[in-house]
Amino acid sequence: MSSAPATAARLKLTGVCPAARACALARLAAARPAPVWLAVFEETRDLDALAEDVALFARTPDAAPALEVVVFPESQADSREMREAFHAASDRLAVLSKLRGRRRAFSSPDPLLVLTTPGALLQAVPPPADFSEREVVLRRGVERPFQALIDLLRQFDYDSEAVCEAPGQYAVRGGIVDIYPITAHQPYRLDFFGDTLEEIRTLDPVTQRSGEPAGSLTLTAAPQIHAARAQASLLDYLGPAAAAVLVEPKALEEAFDLLDNAAGAARFLPRLAGAVSRLVGLGDLDLASEWFDAGAAEETWDTESLSHHRSFPEENLLAHERLEAEDVARRRFFGQVLEWKRGGFAVDFIVSKEGEEQRVRELLGEDAELKKLQPRFVRGAVNEGFRITFGRANPPDEPPPATADNTERGSSGRLALPRSDRGYVAVTETEIFGRRRQRRAQNKRAVVTPSAVDQLLDFSELVEGDFVVHLQHGVAVYRGLTRLETADGVREVISLEFDDKVTLHVPLQESHLISRYVGLSKVKPQLGKVGSGRWEKVRAAAECATL
Q: What pTM value is reported for the model?
């Protein structure tokens, strides 16, 4: 492998244990500002959880720019689960769109941290010039011909549906267009007045009700259109001021070699060094690395996992004996944390729920000495605690901390790493309760799921003649489930009768738009009139009355 070029300023940062990685990345991005940071990991596993943890430690006082953390995943083969592959492709496009956005005049000033892997970096993406031709920004108040937008959606390969429920879909109702952009986490409702885009609002895909206003909306073509021109790399989207961090660089060099036998790290890493202004190697042990052993500045952090300080009961203990042993071990651990705080360490207890915080307060309150601990409580799902002992270069020069003291509760969503001359301790539920919380994969996109539909209305409980409410058209009479011949074959629909004997056949996938009618009197309700707008006025008046 060839030696590292001197194109990017290089820093070798060692002594960062795996438990402290998220905090180290957040501090690194705060101490050495760059519009974009690229963090490369050997494995894809737990990257989403790590992104949440980095965002937690990156929370800053209100005046400071917020670090946005995203994951650039590996694209998946079409042979895998189609929805999973589609979401991975959409997430990749979303990151490319954000990177392009930060180079435009109206882009967000907040810095961006992209977490990725060698496999994802080696997979081709469309060149920036081609991507720009397949992405459009829609702004409120700007003239945009209505029919031209519909033609653009078709050109971008979006699917026209009766109801917009999933990414890549749109629905048209009069002068309203509902769109679920490929790169967004929720759909939006666009309201036109003639050819002027008068309003953009978020849209709940389950209830189909509009929400908060938005000033603009970025519309990107479907993944299959971008894939046809995939000839570039993610590095082509980084600006000259971007920075990159290789997490465990020795392992990454081997990973690149395994993925690309022709050239591997010897080909790709020089490209990376040439694409960024700063290159950091972050690791636990000081392992030999050609990329950071010559000509790189060096820093060593003093970090350790709290697993070295928290003991757990032996497996053969049962019932009362096990509970007693666990209580003794927890108190001993709390005592150690108290000693650290007395020695000048700032202490955070990271818990996921208010109930867990209350339980911790009760445990500390049972002992007069432990009451003095008074940690700051922070909401989060970090699964392993750590301790950082500060040295001359550890952590790197930090921005000014929040004015609050260490007892401030962190549930407000803004977190500044407490200032301390000695160090910082992050305690998690794993050390407190002796159990590792199972972190479920979060679905970042709002979509309609069978459970969301089923919980709204059980049609087995309805009988023909019952009154129901359609979200868009008002009160109707339920006429049962019907099988209809369509161009796509026989489909089962829900038949509803409105005013003037108008019957509307609602597809089963739109059943979440229907709810049971609950009247406050025995008077027969007035049926809705399809297309009249009367129901919208009634619903708006009812909403105002409840304010």
A: 0.77
